[in-house]
Amino acid sequence: MMAAILLLLAILCCSSQHASAFLSPSPITKPLISCAAQRTSTTESDRRSFAEDFLGSISLAFLSSTPCYASGGATAGGAYLLSAKQRYNERVTAGCKTFLNLDGDVDKLNTFFSTADVGGWEDFSAAGYLLSNAFRTSSTKPPDSLPSVKKWKSYAKEIELLKRATAKKDAKKIQSTYKDAEEKLDTYLEAVELPTGMELKQM
């Protein structure tokens, strides 16, 4: 490409008539041919000025016709992760508040596990994992190796035990599992930089 431009430049500098003969009447070269035809002097100053005009025109032509592509790093790195945190924080907070106000009540627990709305376990479990996965320092790091993901899975495991106890209406198991889940939730909240369970409950 550079060799072709230099060759074209040499032709144009030698003769305006020759330039007109060699350049095809494309939208980009028409103004250049016209410019070349107007230059009749062969002084060094004229040639240098023409060369500068020509190269400037070429630069503008390429800048206006070459599409720009965003780097993959813009979505694979910090910008994406920040967006993910902002996107899932609200859903996780809603799920936490619902859970923290269940107090081991069987009816409330059944609603928590059965609803697909924000605040229910179905939405909370999806958003909780995605938020924990957003706390990565490298795009090549496996999600399961992240401390935040490990803490989420530890909490989710307790929730599954709570769900089974609720289905069996085992009051004693519900209370003990619910308490364990509260403790695991606090470690998760710390890992994803959210307020503690006590703070969320008071909000």
Could you characterize the architecture of this molecule?
The protein is mostly helical and 203 residues long. Helices cover 73% and strands 0% of the residues. It is built from eleven helices and no strands. Helix 1 (2-14) packs across helix 2 (16-22), helix 2 (16-22) packs antiparallel against helix 3 and helix 6 (78-100) runs antiparallel to helix 8. It is globular, with a radius of gyration of 34 Å.
Notable traits:
11 helices, single chain, Four Helix Bundle (Hemerythrin (Met), subunit A), 2 domains, 203 residues, mainly alpha
Number of domains: 2
Q: What level of helicity do the residues show? A: over 70%
- What does the radius of gyration come to? 34 Å
Q: List the uncertain runs.
A: 12-46, 48-77
**Proportion of β residues?**
under 5%
The secondary-structure class comes to mainly alpha
What's the CATH architecture name of the largest domain?
Up-down Bundle
CATH class of the largest domain: Mainly Alpha
Major β-sheet profile: none
> Would you report the number of β strands?
0
